[in-house]
Amino acid sequence: ACMQTQGEIEAAVCKGMSQFEQEYMGRGPKDIRAHLMADLLVVRLQGVLTAAEQHLVKTLPVEKGRDLLKQVRTQLIEVARPKLDAMVEDITGTKPLSLHHDISTLTGEEIVVFTLAEAPCYREAKKK
User: Fold this and answer.
1) pTM for the complete prediction?
2) Strand ordering across the sheet containing 109-116
3) Helices and strands, number each (H, E), in the chain
4) pLDDT tens by residue, 10-29
């Protein structure tokens, strides 16, 4: 039987991603939400840009600053991917097949999407 509710899985993913940002970027997101939809796990992080990144975006030409930042963030995620995959598998009990990532330099919003091998098993939350 499935031990966790959908909400518990989402909360655990938020915690894990928050710790990851803290560890790799030196600061956590201002806000983070996870949404589990069948075999898709969407994580939305807000306010993730560091002071250095914000400065970079302000001083460089728009396209250049944006591209540079996206490259660095994507590279970081790629490097840390085994760690992220392991965390997600640990929480959901399902292997991630692919990871998609994007960040907006305008809003400081970052999106990470995991495609899972199958929809994780979870129990229905009891109605209050």
Assistant:
1) 0.90
2) 31-37, 40-46, 109-116, 96-104
3) 4, 4
4) 999 999 999 999 998 888 89
